[in-house]
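In keeping with the milestone schedule agreed at the kick-off meeting, the structural modelling team has produced records for the first pair of proteins. Each record is given below as a sequence line and a structure-token line. The laboratory manager (R.T.) confirmed that both were archived under the project's standard naming scheme.
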Amino acid sequence: MSFLAFAGIQLFPDGTLFIHIALILFMIWALNRTFFKPINAVLEKRSKQKAGRGGEADEILRDVAEKQKRYEEQMLAARTESYEIIETERRAAVDLRQTTIANARSEAASFVEAEKAALRDAVAEAKVEIALEAEKMADQISSTILKG
């Protein structure tokens, strides 16, 4: 029974093979014209749209990169300017400090000189007074010695 089921199968090709090949080629041609060509057109159109969007995305990325570069340049310029302002203010503060210190030293030196001069004058006056007192005492001692 199983041998009879396979009795209709031919192992060697005959003329129907060419008909089958012709039918397959016709089906490929018909499917290409009616089915695959419109699908390929839609796919190609979609691909172009994606490429257009990709180009748009590239343009946006270039714009972002340009804006970022401009931002970084402006930040660098602002930092440089702020450092210059800080340095100018620091120099002004140092100059003011040096001037204040020089004025204080000058005033202190003037005060010390004035006090030294006053001390010299006081010493000179004291010497004169001591000399006068010594003379008075000497006169008193000599008059006491001579009286007695």
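The second protein of the pair:
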Amino acid sequence: MNQPSEKALVPFVSVENMMRLVHHIGIETVLRDLADYVEADFRRWELFDKTPRVASHSDVGVIELMPTSDGEAYGFKYVNGHPKNTSEGLQTVTAFGLLADVYTGYPVLLTEMTVLTALRTAATSAMVAKHLAPKGSKTMAMIGNGAQSEFQTLAMKAIVGIENVRLYDVDAAASEKCARNLKGQGVNVTICKTPEEAIQGAQILTTCTADKKNATILSDNMVGAGVHINAIGGDCPGKTELAADILNRSDVFVEFPPQTRIEGEIQQMPEDFPVTEMWEVIEGKAAGRCDDKQITLFDGVGFAIEDFSALRYIRDQVKDSGFCENLDMLADPDDPRDLFGMVQRAVPVS
């Protein structure tokens, strides 16, 4: 019976090994490292294949594929979004991803991406805030205290330097959960009873709610001059969080306009509504924050290049480590033309 060769074995990072790896490295270090990988890929944005994610919508949620390639490696993520899952004791979002070698077409990494997506989303938010938020920002309002909230807070602490987070959620238990998880993490936590209370004194306003509907989490009169809004909850058609008048007062920054106009806050705006691509800011080709009164708004929906960056990072971290296992995923006959012969020679399992 053929034994798989080393080149036919694919490293696989399970949820357990992903958690072990995060604890081994340290979560804030992982967030900083991921932000560096994402920023590095934004700097070579023009090299990548880019397409809006391929989505299959149903009455209860969405299942999506997010592919991209830089010409040397190819990556994709499978991800779902089912807001009703929480009421059934299930995750709203789950994901896995694959990285492959373009030259051979062979996969070089298969990994869980439920935990990894939370990490890369938070790292991307904080990387963007590093470029757009008011200098010296110390306080963030976290509106929506579900699965993303702790990751977002710690990324803003590690990368931007926030010291205080003000929590609000329609479900008080969610805020209590978030506060409990952030205890001892070096951030001052305040639970607020209203979103208006949460944004008092905050320089960064993060919205991350789960309901698939056109909501007004922030109304126009709630947002004063000079803040940075990190709007990451709107991530599919028919789901928004901000009043349109806020967008009209803000300079809006996005990842990939053809996707954001379908899924982001700007889906409620005219097709010619002006936006700036974030990679242009990072490369110095477009202006970011220009003055103290400007409202900057990151309309973040998540894009395949960020997942590609996260896959690259995990590939580099698990190489020659104990944080993965090798899967026999690829048929590897002695003669590449004799796949049938390999099957014939296989020893039946008694």
